[in-house]
Amino acid sequence: MAYTFSGSRYVTSGVAENFPIELQVALFSAIEQMREKVSGQLDYLQIFEIVTEVKGQKKFLHIYHMQECPEAKLEYFIPTDVEVNGRAYMIDDVDHITLLLAEEY
Predict the structure, then answer these.
(1) Of 62, 82, 87, 103, which is least surrounded by CB within 10 A?
(2) What is the pTM of this model?
(3) Helix, strand or coil for residue 14?
(4) Contact, 10 vs 45, CB < 8 A?
(5) How far apart are CA 63 and CA 4, in angstroms?
(6) pLDDT in tens, 7-58
(7) Which residues lie across from 48 on neighbouring strands?
């Protein structure tokens, strides 16, 4: 089955409470970069490891974006003023997409 990540988008309460809206938008946008990398063969489960890093005077969210089938990895750096550390999943259930914290799975 081909997963398109084009349905209605939902976030869980954990994501809404812990991830700033800019990060939520960035994670949904990251799907397009992954789609290009894997020639459209997206896995139904997208995994995001998020680590806050400080470089000099600037703070960044270092995002590791992964999928298992086909195996692929991407990395992103987003300037930030907040600290976010953890793992999130994005799941394509064909008619909708859900972004949730790993502990909410």
Answers:
(1) 103
(2) 0.95
(3) helix
(4) no
(5) 21
(6) 999 999 999 999 999 999 999 999 999 999 999 999 999 999 999 999 999 9
(7) 65, 88
Residue 9 structure tokens = 């988008």
Whole-number Å distance between alpha carbons of 20 and 6:
22
pLDDT surpasses 80 at 1:
no
What's the confidence (pLDDT) of residue 2?
75
| Percent of the chain predicted with pLDDT > 90 | 98
Retrieve residue 86's tokens: 């953890």
Question: Of 48, 54, 56, whose CA–CA distance to 11 is shortest?
Answer: 48
Burial 84-96 (b: 16+ CB within 10 A, else e): bebebbbbbeeee
